[in-house]
């Protein structure tokens, strides 16, 4: 099952929440020997039973009990957005390093408190995974850093998905509870663009779309980011389940698997006939760990790397287009294709950062301050759209701890 050789030792990892997020990280944890799943807590009895059976790990009814487990060095907080702040504070107070799912929190006040709690406890806080961990994005950033293509000047990013019509719990359709595409999807795109642009967003000007009264939250947005160094980025997203921008990415799905266009309309069809919000929430539970459609640790690696839609980064001497399986470099006279081999372990880059933080005490690039800065942009989107004006940013940080 595992593929990488141990590097020194494995991290004893505890998991808070065995839902959809954990299911998506499961293939990574199961294949990477630098991580050992030792304990978990979740409200789902079936999830706890399955975790104990598959990993021989201990399960607990509460996070307090999980934090008291001496084998747990780090905790993966994979719960819904609204629980992140309290759970991160508990884990930090117990002296555990933390990997918390994006977004860092729903409110900026909670986000600031989480960063402060980790700093006070002397533990590392990593925010992710987001698609800024994707290998093609990191390869693009490395090429920009090399100086070979000159300074970054402009980024165009767009993604059209079926996000709003995937099965949802009721609060996932309420913006103030962290629902809608801004908190769950824009944070991916913002992380990617901020990483390529260096991190320091000066201002946000945005519009949002809320077009389906039966899904009463933001389903689309378009925004312009102005960076401190004069670069700028245009970001567009729609989760209304019509045009699918995977068409522009070689028909690789977001998670790197091959995708057939014959599945058009599947998300909307799956919701038809559901008589209540409870029925929809029950359908979502089938997609979580322990559910009927849950992942298995033996899932084969994807055909290519994960991605978050179409992106072009325009530099002084080339346009760069990261794809799930290669990086295209459009120069003045020729197009260079740089293949990127398929990952043996999906999301391995997340474990790279976690392992370095826990074992080597290296400050992570996607730390709490980074996650707070991306969350500030999310709030900037909502505020700019509501007030119809440009919103200045004040919590931004450069990419990478060495730059801070």
Could you give a short description of this structure?
The chain is α/β, with parallel strands linked by helices and 404 residues long. Helices cover 32% and strands 21% of the residues.
> Which band does the percent of strand residues land in?
15-25%
- Secondary-structure-based class equals alpha/beta
The percentage helix is 25-40%
User: Which term fits the overall shape?
Assistant: globular
Count of β-strands = 15
Description of the structure:
Helix 4 packs parallel to helix 5. It contains eleven helices and 15 strands. It is globular, with a radius of gyration of 20 Å. By secondary structure, the chain is of the alpha/beta class. The model is unreliable at 1-6 (pLDDT under 50). The protein has two domains: 11-131 and 346-367, NAD(P)-binding Rossmann-like Domain (Rossmann fold, 3-Layer(aba) Sandwich); 132-345 and 375-397, Dihydrodipicolinate Reductase, domain 2.
Give the topology.
Layout: E1 11-16, H1 20-31, E2 35-41, H2 45-55, E3 58-60, H3 63-67, E4 74-77, H4 84-93, E5 97-100, H5 108-121, E6 125-127, H6 135-146, E7 152-160, H7 181-197, E8 201-209, E9 220-227, E10 232-238, H8 266-271, H9 277-285, E11 310-315, E12 319-323, E13 326-330, E14 335-339, H10 348-360, H11 368-387, E15 391-392
Helix pairs in contact: 4-5, 5-11, 7-11
What keyword list fits this structure?
15 strands, six-stranded parallel beta sheet, nine-stranded mixed beta sheet, Rossmann fold, disordered N terminus, 404 residues, single chain, globular
């Amino acid at each position: 099952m595992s593929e990488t050789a141990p590097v020194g030792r494995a991290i004893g990892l505890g998991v808070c929440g065995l839902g959809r997020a954990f299911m998506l990280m499961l293939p990574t944890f199961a294949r990477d020997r630098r991580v050992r799943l030792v304990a978990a807590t979740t409200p789902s009895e079936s999830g706890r039973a399955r975790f104990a059976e598959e990993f021989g790990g201990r399960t607990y009814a509460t996070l307090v009990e999980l934090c008291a487990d001496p084998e747990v060095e780090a905790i993966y907080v994979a719960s819904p957005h609204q629980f992140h702040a309290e759970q991160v504070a508990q884990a930090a107070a117990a002296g555990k390093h933390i990997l918390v799912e994006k977004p860092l929190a729903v409110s900026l006040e909670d986000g600031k408190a989480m960063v402060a709690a980790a700093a006070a406890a002397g533990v590392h806080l990593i925010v992710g995974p987001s698609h800024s961990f994707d290998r093609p994005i990191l390869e693009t950033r490395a090429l920009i850093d090399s100086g070979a293509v000159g300074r970054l000047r402009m980024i165009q990013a767009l993604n059209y998905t079926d996000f709003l019509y995937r099965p949802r719990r009721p609060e996932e359709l309420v913006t103030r509870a962290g629902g809608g595409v801004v908190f769950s999807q824009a944070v991916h795109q913002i992380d990617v663009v901020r990483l390529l642009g260096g991190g320091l967003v000066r201002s946000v000007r945005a519009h949002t779309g809320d077009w389906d009264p039966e899904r009463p939250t933001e389903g689309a947005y378009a925004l312009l980011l102005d960076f401190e160094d004069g670069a700028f980025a245009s970001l567009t997203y729609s989760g209304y389940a019509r045009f699918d921008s995977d068409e522009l990415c070689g028909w690789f799905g977001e998670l790197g698997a091959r995708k057939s266009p014959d599945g058009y309309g599947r998300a909307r069809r799956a919701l038809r006939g559901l008589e209540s919000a409870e029925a929809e929430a029950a359908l979502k539970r089938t997609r979580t760990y322990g559910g009927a459609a849950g992942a298995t640790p033996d899932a084969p690696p994807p055909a290519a790397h994960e991605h978050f839609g179409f992106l072009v980064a325009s530099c002084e001497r080339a346009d760069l287009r990261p794809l799930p399986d290669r990086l295209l470099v459009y120069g003045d006279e020729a197009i260079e294709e740089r293949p990127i081999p398929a990952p043996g372990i999906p999301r391995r880059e997340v474990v790279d950062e976690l392992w370095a933080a826990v074992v080597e005490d290296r400050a992570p690039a996607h730390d709490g301050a980074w996650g707070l800065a991306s969350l500030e942009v999310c709030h900037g989107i909502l505020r700019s759209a509501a007030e119809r004006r440009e919103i200045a940013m004040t919590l931004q940080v450069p990419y990478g701890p060495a730059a801070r």
